[in-house]
Write a structure and sequence with these properties.
The protein has one helix spanning 96-100; strands at 30-32, 36-38, 46-53, 71-79, 82-90, 120-124, 127-131, 139-141, 147-150, 166-167, 174-178, 185-191, 197-204, 214-216, 220-225, 228-230, 241-243, 250-255, 264-267, 272-282, 285-293, 309-317, 323-329, 333-338, 349-355, 362-369, 374-378, 384-386, 390-393, 403-411, 416-423, 433-436, 446-451. By secondary structure, the chain is mostly beta strands. It has one domain (8-451): 7 Propeller (Methylamine Dehydrogenase, Chain H). It is globular and about 55 Å long. The chain is built from 1 helix and 33 strands. The longest helix is centred in the N-terminal third of the chain and has 5 residues, at 96-100. Strands 2, 28, 29, 30, 31 and 32 form a 6-stranded antiparallel sheet that branches. Strands 1-5-4-3-33 form a 5-stranded antiparallel sheet, with no helix packed on it. It has a 4-stranded antiparallel sheet with strand order 6-7-8-9, with no helix packed on it. The chain binds fe (ii) ion (FE2). Residues 163-164, 212, 274-275, 445-446 line the site of fe (ii) ion.
């Protein structure tokens, strides 16, 4: 199997995570009644939200790590076939509040203090939250993306939260596995549909791994324990997680009731996985579709694309305890999504953003048929690059791919972004609608479609 190694070009010289469309924007913009080509489906009533790092002061190029920049939220409000507004707003934290001339956010703080929050943005029980991993508390945002307060979900978060709470369509819960460098345990927690969290299990992890994502099936909570760990010898101000070749990569299968006595560890290939697309139970096996990075945070300390990525299917045989893998897509890709109604269940379609093989850049979107291994491409045009493609099901749909793909797409020719809506069933064809934004939305992390019902 060929692992695509990027040229040394982007590992040396200037930091690519501060250039081009990775560069931060400096202004908070509010724009109304945005121009639309095509037709926005009338039933799309809500907000397409996104978040990513956006350093408020230009950091030192050599030192800056993409994961550490001040958070900025972006939102596009759709209603009645119109693009009513676009807004971007800094997520207020302890560092940027004085620079922005804004007061310190009210609300609880835990040991992580008023840390940067930059990784995901989602609706929970009718409220909007920006979230982060590694011990930080979420920031609750107003409908129009102003930072309102720190939140520990009404006192129910014992420690910090996570980047990737996973929606379980069978129960309406969110599942999450959190970590915190100062703790020697991982926490499996559930957020109930009423927005209250409950810690279900504490998993020993004295080596303090970075655990960015998790997965669940109808029987298991899937824990990723891969060889990136906290290194307290790294100097203050530098990204503190590093590749740790001393660690055996492993996947934990925890029964959904959280009985840690029955936690089972399975050896995994040497790699790092930021994102699981989906997982489900099969006969005597657990299936896990992952974006597998050959290596991260080893030689390169600025971001995650040190080596190639591939979309892989991992099959964990519950009888012999072995993990085997098959490739679903060899071209570099990241930010996998799917129809959330199929979370934890056998499914067929996933969607990713392509990643350039020889530089840190994005490009077309992919639609993966994981049952056949075939991939469709949507090319947004010259100098265009999509961010995470978000699937939104059509109301009343019965087919898995009956819905739309919404994403923020950077258009390098006009150095600004569009929101592009695709018909997921006609993925390669002309977009259903293109909404022209007046500004750039920098390459960042994650987003979600949040209906007005929450
Ligand atoms: Fe992520």
């Amino acid at each position: 199997m060929q692992i695509v190694e990027p040229g040394i070009n982007h590992l040396s010289h200037t930091n690519p995570f501060l250039k081009g469309n990775f560069a931060p924007v400096t202004v908070e913009t509010t724009a109304f009644d945005l121009p639309v080509q095509g037709t926005i489906p009338e039933e799309l009533e809500g907000r397409l939200l996104r978040i990513g790092p956006n350093p408020i002061q230009m950091p030192q190029h050599q030192q800056y790590h993409w994961f550490t920049g001040t958070g900025m939220a972006h939102g596009l409000r759709l209603r009645g076939g119109r693009a009513e507004w676009y807004r971007n707003r800094f997520i207020v934290d302890g560092m940027n509040a004085p620079i922005l001339g804004r007061p310190r956010l009210p609300g609880p703080e835990n040991g992580a203090g008023p840390n940067v929050v930059n990784t995901n943005i989602l609706g929970i029980s009718g409220r909007t939250y920006a979230t982060v991993e590694a011990g930080g508390l979420p920031v609750e945002l107003s409908y129009t993306l102003e930072s309102v307060s720190r939140s520990n979900l009404a006192g129910t978060l014992e420690h910090g939260f996570v980047a990737h709470p996973k929606y379980d369509p069978s129960t309406g819960q969110l599942h999450a596995v959190s970590y915190e460098p100062k703790l020697e345990t991982l926490s499996y927690m559930v957020v109930e549909p009423n927005g209250m969290a409950r810690t279900v299990a504490q998993i020993p992890a004295a080596h303090r791994p970075m655990v960015h994502d998790m997965a669940f099936t109808s029987k298991w909570i899937v824990v990723l324990d891969l060889p990136v760990t906290f290194d307290q010898t790294i100097g203050r101000g530098n990204f503190p997680f590093t590749w740790n070749s001393d660690r055996m990569p492993r996947i934990g299968l925890l029964p959904r009731d959280g009985d840690v006595r029955l936690l089972r560890w399975i050896e995994a290939p040497s790699c790092f996985v930021f994102h699981v697309m989906n997982a489900f139970d099969s006969e005597n096996a657990v299936i896990l579709d992952v974006v597998r990075h050959a290596r991260v945070f080893d030689k390169w300390r600025n971001g995650p694309f040190e080596a190639g990525t591939m979309l892989m299917r991992w099959r964990i045989d519950l009888l012999n305890g072995k993990l085997t893998e098959t490739m679903l897509e060899e071209r570099n890709c990241e930010f996998p999504r799917f129809n959330d109604a199929f979370g934890g269940k056998e499914y067929r379609f996933g969607y990713t953003a392509s990643v350039a093989a020889d530089s840190v850049n994005f490009g077309p979107a992919y639609k993966h048929d994981v049952s056949t291994g075939q991939t469709e491409i949507h090319d947004y045009g010259p100098a265009c690059a999509t961010l995470e493609p978000v699937f939104v099901a059509r109301q009343g749909s019965t087919e898995e791919d009956d819905g739309w793909i919404l994403s923020f797409v950077y258009n390098g020719e006009r150095d600004a972004s569009d929101v592009v809506i695709l018909n997921a069933k006609a993925f390669s064809e002309k977009p259903v609608a293109i909404i022209t934004l007046p500004v750039r939305v920098p390459f960042g992390f994650h987003g979600n479609w949040v209906t007005d019902a929450g």
